[in-house]
Design goal:
heterodimer; A: mainly alpha; 3-stranded antiparallel β-sheet; 20 helices; 3 strands; B: mainly alpha; Helix Hairpins; transport (chain A); translocase (chain A); NADH-Q_OxRdtase_suN/2 (chain A); quinone (chain A)
Chain lengths: 515, 98
């Protein structure tokens, strides 16, 4: 206590992927401020794609040069095997989503202009575009990278907000159906802020219990601190509410269909893939590292949440008439399948196999969902994308290739063999059976069967109905074409030849989360 | 002695939470969320006192910054939808359902 302050040590090398993404986002803001309007788009596109690719290369390089065994940045960020795997996944999915964002016509000319006003007319005629989309997306991706790697609850809260705040704005920027888009933004924002307040109060209570927000220290204090169990239980529950909201687990799933439907479809793709992956990484870290010793208390609740999520997602999806809402409910159901893996906790080896199953599932699901939303952007009416299912009738006769690819993605969601979805589900269910969660697996299989019904219903509609005379046209811009091809390739390869990625997930999961 | 502050913080949090659920105006709902964040801050500072370390006080600063950023984003979104619909009532945003 001699009054000098020790400078913290920051492992910049380990944090490099994150720093590259955040750095590019800040450069993007400067471009917005200083570059002339006609140049902005042509600067942003390569900048965004290159920074994501660069961060991916850095992640690979780090994984090859050895996985660190202790947390970086004074214990605030844990760059461990699972974190590196999740980073790689998020960066690839974000890259693919940015390819979708690149294609013209998804974003509003001027978000502040009232729809239908003279101001909007002017913005449209001037050809104005919101190039802020790129830095916002990069900030969101940066938050997604920090969220699953955060090793204390403060870093995790900041990451949660850095990830969510840009997404709230991006949700409201759709060019068509402005009212729906703005409504999605308001709903997402108010509910998201509400849930992050719960997360924060949970953090406060756990800090009161353990005297630290460090996940490992909270984990170590379980059982060591006496007489304050109320703080611990309420804190853990509130933290769980905040995290489960981001995943869209029932009973906190209400925002998901509305937000997925109203947002610009490329942003929906980014949220459905990247946010879900990041949120599962964070959920696993909190519940396995910090609250691992409390397993007997939270597993029964998590069982209930998983069952409710799977059943809600699968059953409500049947009643949907809107393709984006249907995919949103399917995403809720998939969140439930993933939660099965979260409760498949046991000894060291069991945890590693559950974790590797989850990592594989996240990769497989992420690619398929980006691909499915990419196809949704291509089927268009005069007023924008054709969302109503009836408009998709007979698509297989008019555009066989597009319909076949979409059908293939739907089969992958359903978990049909020879698609990536099958191995994802198989691995997670296998881990759950090993952990003694067989009843949960039974519910999972039954809801998969229910879910298969509505996937197949869309396929039947596309191939066995007659196309309407004034049916939607299919427009495939270059970027979207590439995304569809990449996602198809990933879904096929992971379904036919999954071993390399399974091995990679297994290696990443072997060391589990560092403490 | 710190118990009183914790009780106050819990009360503020509950008032905020109930406000979010029952109030109609998006701005008021948003103010209630901010009240919840402030309740968190009070809890952090109190626990910092109770635990005898400074972590909680530092965290309170981070929370303030995040809350400020959230205000910027939130007001932007609410003002945009108000200009479109001439209403900030959360009951009126009801196009997306079922």
């Amino acid at each position: 206590m001699n009054g000098t302050i020790q400078a913290p040590t920051i492992e910049y090398g380990l944090l490099a992927p994150m720093l590259v993404v955040f750095g590019a986002a800040i450069i993007g803001v400067l471009v917005e401020a200083f570059a002339p309007r006609y140049l902005r788009s042509s600067i942003h596109k390569p900048l965004t794609l290159l920074s994501l690719a660069g961060a991916f290369v850095l992640t690979i390089w780090q994984a090859r040069s050895g996985i660190p065994t202790k947390p970086a940045a004074m214990g605030a960020v844990a760059v461990d095997g699972p974190a590196l795997f999740i980073w790689g996944t998020i960066l690839v999915l974000a890259f693919v989503s940015v390819l979708l964002i690149n294609d013209e016509g998804h974003f509003v000319a001027s978000a502040s202009a009232v729809p239908g006003s003279a101001e909007e007319e002017r913005a449209l005629s001037e050809g104005a575009t919101h190039t802020e989309v790129y830095p916002l997306a990069l900030f969101a991706v940066g938050g997604m990278l920090l969220f699953p790697a955060a090793n204390d609850l403060l870093a995790m809260f900041v990451a949660l907000e850095v990830m969510s705040l840009p997404l709230y704005l991006l949700c409201g920027l759709a060019r068509r159906r402005r009212l729906l888009s703005q409504e999605a933004a308001v709903k997402y924002f108010l509910l998201g802020a509400f849930s992050s307040a719960f997360f924060l109060y949970g953090t406060a209570l756990l800090y009161g219990y353990a005297g630290s927000v460090d996940l490992a220290k909270i984990g170590a204090s379980l059982g060591a601190v006496g007489g304050q169990d109320t703080l611990l239980y309420i804190g853990a529950a509130m933290l769980g509410v905040g995290l489960l909201f981001k995943i869209g687990a029932a009973p906190f799933q209400a925002w998901k269909p509305d937000v997925y439907q109203g947002s610009p479809t490329p942003i929906t793709a980014l949220m459905a893939s990247g946010t879900l992956v990041a949120a599962f990484g964070a959920l696993l870290r909190v519940f396995w590292v910090a609250l691992g010793g409390l397993e007997w208390s939270w597993t029964p609740i998590m069982w209930g949440v998983a069952i409710l999520t799977m059943v809600t997602g699968a059953i409500l999806a049947i009643t949907q008439t809107d393709i984006k809402r249907m995919l949103a409910y399917s995403s809720i159901a998939h969140g439930g399948f993933l939660l099965i893996g979260v409760v498949a906790i046991g000894n060291q080896q069991q945890n590693a196999s559950a974790l590797s199953a989850l990592l594989f599932y996240l990769v497989a699901y992420g690619f398929t969902t980006v691909g499915a939303f990419a196809i949704v952007t291509t089927v268009r009416d005069a007023g924008g994308e054709a969302w109503h299912l009836s408009r998709w009738a007979g698509l297989g006769k008019r555009r066989p290739l597009v319909a076949t690819v979409f059908a293939f993605f739907l089969l992958a969601f359903a978990g049909i063999p020879l698609t990536s979805g099958f191995f994802g589900k198989y691995a997670v269910f296998q881990a759950a059976v090993d952990a003694g969660a067989t009843p949960l697996v039974v519910v999972g299989v039954v809801s998969s069967a229910v879910a298969a019904f509505f996937y197949v219903r869309v396929i039947v509609l596309m191939f066995f109905s007659d196309p309407a005379a004034d049916g939607p046209s299919v427009v495939i811009p270059g970027g979207t074409w590439a995304v569809g091809a990449l996602a198809t390739l990933a879904t096929v390869v992971l379904g036919v030849f999954p071993q390399p990625v399974l091995d990679l997930a297994h290696t990443a999961a072997q060391s589990l989360f560092v403490r | 002695m710190t118990t009183h502050y914790l009780v106050l913080s819990a009360l503020l949090f509950v008032i905020g939470g109930v406000g979010v659920l029952v109030r109609r105006n998006a701005i008021v709902v948003f103010m209630c969320v901010e009240l919840m964040l402030n309740a968190c801050n009070l809890a952090f500072v109190t626990f910092a006192r109770q635990n005898g370390n400074l972590d909680g006080q530092i965290i309170a600063f981070f929370v303030m910054i995040v809350a400020a950023a959230e205000v910027v984003i939130g007001l932007a979104i609410i003002v945009t939808i108000f200009r479109t619909r001439r209403s900030a009532s959360v009951d009126d945003v009801n196009l997306l359902k079922y």
